[in-house]
Design brief:
With 237 residues, this protein is mainly α. The protein has eleven helices and no strands.
């Protein structure tokens, strides 16, 4: 395996040879995050990144050999933004709730994180979070696979909710039409649908349902509690 194929976490922070430039890997990663936050992941190229940090594109590859390496570094960096207590509280539900809200806040601050967080990342900040999470589940009678499955369920719930929230923000950014403006534009057509009588459940959603209009933070917390209720029912007796 060549150096370029090795995990980014096995590579030195600074190249061992050659002159030391006036930037660091931390600077590179912070700049990449700033670009992706402001303009979306599509705006982040190695050429653009090199120009922002004042480097040649090829010299940048000495610090970050591949785009996937850059994504790993970015994800691990944002994972440190919302520090956890030194130890879990002893209440697994409270701890999983804390982690879920933390994950949602991070992804809403950095929407690109939802699209690049696919394979596991073994950076130090993410590993510390994982260790904290498993420690929170210790003593529940779960083996390591049970802990993993519980974690997968909560992560899948958070990811699904955040993807919808991020998608709405993205389409509003790209079209210049926010959700309220879009809803107003749909009124004539929705009135026709209701009047047709062909879609009674959709009519009830539009006329009677409160859920689509609830505060997003409160709704997230309520639905998360339902997920945790379901997981609690599967715990070993």
């Amino acid at each position: 395996m060549s150096d370029d194929e090795a995990s980014i976490w096995m590579r030195p922070v600074r190249p061992a040879r050659g002159p030391q430039p006036g930037y660091s890997r931390d600077t590179i990663v912070a700049t990449a995050i700033a670009i992706a936050d402001a303009e979306g992941l599509e705006a982040l190229s190695m050429r653009r990144l090199a120009a922002e940090v004042g480097a040649g594109t090829m010299s940048l590859y000495r610090y970050v050999p591949k785009k996937s390496d850059l994504y790993e570094l970015m994800l691990d960096t944002v994972a440190s933004e919302d520090p956890l207590p030194e130890k879990p509280s002893g209440d697994w539900r409270a701890d999983m709730r804390r982690l879920a809200h933390r994950q949602r806040r991070t992804c809403l601050r950095h929407p690109w994180a939802v699209t690049v967080a696919a394979r596991p990342v073994f950076g130090p900040n993410i590993l510390r979070t994982t260790e904290w999470q498993f420690a929170a589940l210790e003593g529940l009678g779960l083996d390591i696979d049970g802990m993993l499955r519980l974690s997968y369920v909560v992560d899948a719930f958070v990811t699904g909710v955040v993807q919808s929230e991020v998608a709405e923000r993205d389409i509003a950014r790209r079209t210049g039409i926010d959700e309220n403006q879009w809803r107003l534009a749909q009124i004539p057509y929705i009135q026709r649908l209701i009047g047709s009588g062909e879609f009674p459940y959709m009519a009830k959603v539009i006329v009677d349902a409160k859920t689509p209009h609830e505060d997003a933070d409160a709704l997230f917390g309520e639905l998360l509690d339902r997920v945790l209720d379901g997981l609690a029912a599967t715990m070993p007796s």
